[in-house]
Amino acid sequence: MTNGSSAARQDLRRRRGLSKLEQGYMGFILILPWLIGFCIFKLYPFVSSLVYSFTDYDLFKGVQNVVGFQNYIDAFTKPKNVKALQVTFTYAFMTVPLKLIFALFIAYILNFKIKGVGLFRTAYYVPSILGGSVAIAVLWKALFKNDGVINTILAMLGFESINFLADKNWALFIICLLRVWQFGSAMVLFLAALKGVPEDLYEAASIDGATKGRQFLSITIPLISPVIFYNLVTQLVQAFQEFNGPYIITNGGPRNATTLISVIVYNTAFKDYKVGMSSAMAWVMFVIVMVLTVIAFVSQKKWVYYSDDDGRG
Amino acid sequence: MSIIGIVFLVLSIVLLGLGFYGASVDVVSAVGLAESIGQMKNFYFLLGGLILFIVFYRTAFAKASLRVQHAMSTTIRYIILIGVGVFMVYPLLWMISATFKDNNEIFSTLSLIPTRPTMDGYKAAMNNYGGDINIWQAMLNTYKYVIPKVIFTVISSTITAYGFGRFRFRGRNFLFAVLMATLFLPQVVLNIPQFLMYRNFGWVDSPYYLALIVPTLFAQETYFVYMLIQFMRNIPRELDEAAKIDGCNIMQTLVLVLVPMLWPAMVSAGLFQFMWSSNDFMGPLLYVNSPARYPATLFVRMSMDADSGFAWNRVMAVSLISIIPSLVVFFLAQRQFMDGVTAGAVKG
């Protein structure tokens, strides 16, 4: 949109003052269903979960006592809960970088004039679209179980077999691998961004004698940084909420090695019926996710480059 | 050869040496360092060989003509792409082939072609569990809530996006900020109070899956609202204004002018909602209790718990059947999926 046409548009709107007022009223009516839904399905649960977190709310008996900060103290002192926090951080900081680096690497290669880009892109994208399903979690279990496919491969290559899902050093990594395997959607975004980097910048740089690696760091990364940022935030928020993988594949085991916060939140509320405690854990997670999101948003001024050309930035 | 090249050459020779040494060790009788080297021999061979290959590759082609260099790097790229492609696709192909294998064969070979093809897995998959539920009933149950969710999400999100994208009203900016904030609100914080609320409403284990469907009537899946707003920004406002001058009211403008333009984005939103709702596990886990109402996701997990250890061909057949509709939809509408992914994100 050029400046000229937007000025003309504003002018047009100014001349029809009355209809503008009517429009205003209608806009609110249009979003009213969303606003009502927001209050019932988002705002009320959000606030009440904070309130519950200060009580000993039981799933069947309701609130008996207000316990103050006791649930939060438990969240940071009970070994089981502390372990869940540790595991969640390990999981998120392992999964997100691996997934993004992999996605960027593959998108970078696909961005060279490769024949059959469409075919490769589809093959890489299928796991992303199916990966959240229970069927794929079941498949993952079949791949990594003690006598599973991966161990058959290891045996053929002459390695010792590894009981991945029962080994506390491996289990979390296998859960993480399931998410890394779904790098497709991040890759599609990176690929679209890479296609938007003007070719002539690379030409100019190589005339100046910049190597491929140098060009990648000084041209590609800054120009696609908005997409890196978007992927980083969305993947981080997602990783902290991971539930299906650990719940279905390892059920939190072995010895709580894959009990992420979301699993402990679910178990505390629906197996131990301690809604109050569970809400406190959920809030701890919410605060962590929020802090990380805010850090990402504040830091983006330092490293994210928005082109201001024609305001699409 | 550069200094770095020499360092890597030495490194690869050391690694290969360790590998050969490891191969000569008798793992059973050896102890300590020798034993662990013996166990790691394959690792040393692989890593050493890889580094040696890279060193040779770089020295051999550093002085080659540009054409040869170009051909070589293209080849390397294809090797990487195909290698990764195998890593992506093999598990899925293995899953398909496992459904046709008998249980003794499933984990004993890596071959994708069954030596004794059998339909036993599928036959077993058709059996009921305790009479209440079978795979077909579970599939039917899934689409009983997926299809309403898709339709309601698309309609309610489009209306909300229209309100935010095309109108100014008091409090618009504040409400828009609220909308954007819910994009980052983790569902886990909401699950428990939502469960308690739906329990009071009598929506838990409802035969009409009310707890899963009703929120979509209120455009609560913020991602789609955001995606549609982004898309709507690219439709010139002059179109709305022209429609208005021609006498269209607000809803007519939406339905007759904007919807045809927005259609690709609406289809994308619908497709993503279809995939996400079909895959959703947490929702049914919380709100569906009776086995007769189980959707495919819960049914697959139930069959895994019941069968794993002996009837993996049945488990794999059940799993595969449960994702076939999603696979078909994906292959029919790949283009819309790719466009949808990029439409919601920031424009570079």
Entry summary:
Chain A is an all-alpha fold and 313 residues long.
User: Can you tell me the residue ranges of chain A where pLDDT is under 50 for at least 5 consecutive residues?
Assistant: 17-21, 309-313
Structural class by sheet pairing and helices of chain A? mainly alpha
- CATH C-level class of the largest domain in chain B is Mainly Alpha
According to DSSP, the number of beta strands of chain A is 0
- Give the amount of beta strand of chain A, in percent: under 5%
Q: What is the distance, rounded to the nearest whole angstrom, between the alpha carbons of the first and last residues of chain B?
A: 41 Å
Counted by DSSP, the helix tally of chain A is 14
User: What global shape of chain B is seen?
Assistant: extended
What can you see in these coordinates?
The complex is a heterodimer of chains A (313) and B (348). Chain A is mainly α. Chain A contains 14 helices and no strands. Chain A folds into two domains: 1-52, no CATH class; 75-311, MetI-like fold (Orthogonal Bundle), CATH 1.10.3720.10. In chain A, helix 4 crosses helix 9 and helix 5 (117-130) packs antiparallel against helix 9. The model of chain A is unreliable at 17-21 and 309-313 (pLDDT under 50). Chain B is an all-alpha fold. Chain B folds into two domains: 3-63; 126-344, MetI-like (MetI-like fold, Orthogonal Bundle). Chain B contains 15 helices and no strands. The model of chain B has no long low-confidence stretch (mean pLDDT 87). The interface between A and B is large, with 106 and 101 residues.
